[in-house]
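Hey,
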Amino acid sequence: MARPMKHPLRRIAITTNAGAEDAVAALLERQTGQTPGIHLDLRSGSVTVSAFVSPSPRAAMVLRKALRDGLAALRGFDIDPSPAGISLRVVPPKDWSESWKRHFRPIDVDGKLLVRPTWSRRRPKRGQVLVELDPGLSFGTGQHATTRFCLGQVAALRRAGTRQTLLDAGTGSGILALAAARLGYDPVEAFDYDPDCVRIARANAKLNGIGTVRFAEGDATRLPSRPAVRHDVVCANLMHDVLVAAKSRLTAHVARGGTLVAAGILATQFDDVAAAYRTLGWEVVEARTEGEWRSGAFRRAADGAGSRKKHSARTLPQKVG
């Protein structure tokens, strides 16, 4: 049985106008990590941009303030988001469950991986591994463009018959770490700044019968600068400012010849992220733009890392107090 959410589900909605709807949608998507819905009232001409979140009371206040500040900042770019009203209301659990059953569909990742909701009867193809998620546990279901890119990279980079390790920075629901474990990466480590995400990821691991992934609470900007083990693949589905601030520490965790997968970046900010990593020798080897988002896979020349040391808990960031 799925564990209930720690905090009630809420629908956050911003009332704006047709001229500003794209910018407001990008703002809401950036702050929530969810692809917003957009509704146009034909009679009044007003536009409502909305998404679903499950924040603690304090996090809800922080989110509301961040959105107010973001809407105010749009005016500096000659974008008027008026009337810019923000509402946050509790959604009855039954309404949320039925909504997800309509919109959360199985995702086939290059024939190698199937991500499906627990109520789906779709069977994996021969040789295809399966990850099940219950949206009652979290919102990281693979529907978001940045998560889909990361899933594709995790599957494409797996080399059968070889030992590969993976670090998932900003794990959210744990979907990338669980997919990696199913595909044969070992060891797999994952962390998130939000303790609720860590709890959710562990619950999803239990749902899938995966006990090999180590989840921890932590901050990408506080990763050990001299880790005991480096990883063949590091997935960092984080906001662009965190990616830039943590560039040296994330780099330190990528093994020689390894790949850094960076996502969670608005298309308008991707060049800034790429430039920041270029100063450390990284080059973009693959990139994809979908909607407002652009994600990339980075590689660089041999970094002089020696052979991997024994796996150690020091790989993960220290717990945030």
